[in-house]
Amino acid sequence: MKQTKQSQTPRQFAENAYALFRQYRSAYVKEWQRLSHCERMYRGDHWYDVPQEDPNEPRPVTPILQSTIENISADLMEQVPEAVIRPESAADGEIARIVEAVIARNHDAASYAEEYRKLVHDLLVSGYCVQEVGYDGELNGGLGGAFVRHVDVRNILFDPLCCDIQDSRGIFKFSLRPKEWVRAHYPEKAALITEDPMAVADAPEDELLIADRADSLLLLEYWYREYDANTGSHAVHMAILCGGIVLEDSRTQKPEGYFAHGEYPFVLTPLYPRKGSALGFGIVDLFGEQQRYADKLDQIVLKNALMASRNKLLLTDASGFDEADLRDWSKEVHVGESLSGITWFSTPPLPQYLIAYIRAIREDIKEESGANDASRGTAGNGVTAASAIEALREASTKRARMATDQLHEAFRKAVRMEIEVEREFNFYLRPVTVTVDGRQQEVLFDSAAMNRSALGGVLLPIEFSISIKAVQKTRFAIAAQNELMLHLLDLGVIPPDQAIALMEFEGKEQVLKNLESGKPSEEPAASPKFRQKEKRNAV
Q: Domain limits of the chain?
């Protein structure tokens, strides 16, 4: 009969957990090598992988790939997501506004914009990014709050046999902690902690685990799920292990499961999905070889330039000239037998098509990756209108938009999980600010209001519809929108107050107040151009 985790002793549980971690670690060796290679390519340190035949040969690096990633990253950073929460029914409109304000407050307290920047880097360079959803009782001045945080892809392991992380046998987060930190946080277990069983790794390529860490211990955060056939649901648990023993186990306080939603609290987003894996490939995997070839060609050009800068003199014995005498450029007269024995040998220049090919490779990387001139904010051919520039950017940033959609969808999943965490863990009334009819007012958030009473006194959770929008539009998009509003005003389609309300510029509130004090008419005011057009039509 198979032994369940509940029936295992703490020692057996720890041994099984470490055995599963070893399986994951062995499967992740090549993945960690790939992640290290991608980071080196991003930094321009990819010559590290090339054997050094001549220590003096040039090793140039043109940051095409880094520039490409940074330009796409800049596009993604202009699309920092914000959750818009709508109610399931009209009667739940008030609680939906409050929940939306709570989620926004959580993200502001946890500095989600900074977390998003890390996610963008991992997505583009490493090929996938990971977000964790949980509850932190220290947020909001000790009142607590849910969070969505970035997890470094180098410090988390998913089941290598699964394409969906929710099907994993377990998920490991790990980090190195000083021994003093472990003793201070777990004083009752300090005497039981022995030498780290992972100190001697059987994966030699694993630089993190086999690093010199005499004063550190490997801390494992082990998440696992168990299926209950009677209820048809999963229960997720979490245990912290270090030094071969179990420091914490969530089953002690919550045997029914750490989270009521029964899912692993992680959202993994691959940029370019891999077949048979939950992980993905990134920009470096797709365009890294082009970068290396471009730098290799640069090396050839530089070596040719160095060789061409020092012409060689071929000298035969029949010439009668002394080699050392010819080396002395201070002399005006050299004595020899025959000039026919002296020949200057110069390195021939490289063909011009090679130089053009180097330039073409760099342009191909930029164009194919989406980091072209239009996406960089450069527009040629006399394009000056903001709407035209925005249209060019929209057409040229398809890859960035695809990555934005993936990040926003992952954020939507994380927010849905975050709402469930707030529903389960929030115990204190928290003040939040909501906007009602254009005015801000402070209300108290009570998680009990997220449930509705049904027949028999059963509480049913209120469902919400979640959509994602960007926190801030680009300046080109704002200028294009303002141009459109001015055009509609010029045609007399909308009155000035509506046009200004739909525009975005600094000082808009004061302009609207001035219009309100002047009491503009309800009917759209015809502009001079519109009146001239009507006169021409009448004639």
A: 10-46+107-283, 475-538
